[in-house]
């Protein structure tokens, strides 16, 4: 079993030629997803980057720091989606704001798929993970509020609870990490259009 990595060490120094913190972060996310966060050591990361274990600390202070950066990348993108939906122009209906939130969430997932994949695997095994889960719950609460507003205006059917609708909608979005492959035949726009069409055709109220 590998020796636990220090969470607090000296601040990262300027990166060596050929590497920067962004490069290190991309490689770390790839390893965390492939091997699990707990199963990945800083030594593994250094080896993947072609560095010595001591040299990796010229780029980042700790493995925990990398996890925090990765989770923030996903959460910041999703939070920005909700912010945009909530701050939409006064002329936009709740239905339009919710639909836009789903479309943009798909685009965030595709653009940041490795980071979102890591976020969806978080189980709360550290303070960083617990904080990420708290942020996810806050996002879920805001999404449920958007659903409730669409129900209240009569745009969405009212026989399913807003919390359940929100979970079903974004469960569909999140499932993309299991099968979508970046650079494949279906792009982010096609995915967002397909998901919103399928979801909202079933959720919309139908008046004769």
From TrEMBL:
Keyword match Metal-binding: no
GO MF annotation terms:
DNA-binding transcription factor activity; transcription cis-regulatory region binding
Matches recorded under SUPFAM superfamilies: Homeodomain-like (SSF46689), Tetracyclin repressor-like, C-terminal domain (SSF48498)
Q: Which UniProt keywords apply?
A: DNA-binding, Transcription, Transcription regulation
Kindly indicate whether the keyword Transcription regulation belongs to this entry: yes
Specify the DNA-binding region ranges.
41-60
Q: Where is this region: Disordered?
A: 1-20
- The UniProt record lists the HTH tetR-type domain at 18-78
Protein name (record): TetR/AcrR family transcriptional regulator
PANTHER family named among the record's database cross-references: HTH-TYPE TRANSCRIPTIONAL REGULATOR BETI, HTH-TYPE TRANSCRIPTIONAL REGULATOR RUTR
Q: Tell me the domain of life.
A: Bacteria
Q: Which Gene3D superfamilies match?
A: Homeodomain-like (1.10.10.60), Tetracycline Repressor, domain 2 (1.10.357.10)
């Amino acid at each position: 079993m590998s020796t636990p990595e220090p969470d607090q060490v000296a601040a990262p120094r300027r990166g060596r030629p050929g590497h920067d913190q962004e490069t290190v972060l991309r490689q770390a996310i790839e390893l965390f997803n492939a091997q699990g966060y707990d199963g990945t050591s800083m030594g593994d990361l250094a080896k993947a980057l072609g560095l010595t274990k001591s040299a990796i600390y010229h780029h980042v202070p700790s493995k925990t720091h990398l996890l925090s950066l990765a989770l923030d990348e996903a959460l910041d993108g999703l939070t920005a989606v909700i912010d945009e939906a909530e701050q939409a122009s006064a002329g936009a209906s709740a239905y339009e704001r919710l639909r836009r939130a789903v479309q943009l969430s798909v685009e965030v997932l595709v653009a940041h798929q490795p980071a979102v994949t890591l976020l969806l695997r978080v189980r709360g095994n550290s303070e960083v993970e617990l904080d990420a889960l708290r942020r996810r719950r806050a996002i879920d609460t805001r999404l449920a509020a958007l659903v409730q507003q669409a129900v209240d205006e009569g745009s969405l059917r009212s026989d399913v609870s807003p919390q359940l609708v929100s979970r079903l909608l974004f469960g569909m979005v999140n499932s993309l990490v299991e099968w979508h492959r970046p650079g494949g035949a279906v792009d982010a726009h096609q995915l967002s259009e397909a998901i919103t069409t399928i979801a909202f055709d079933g959720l919309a109220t139908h008046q004769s």
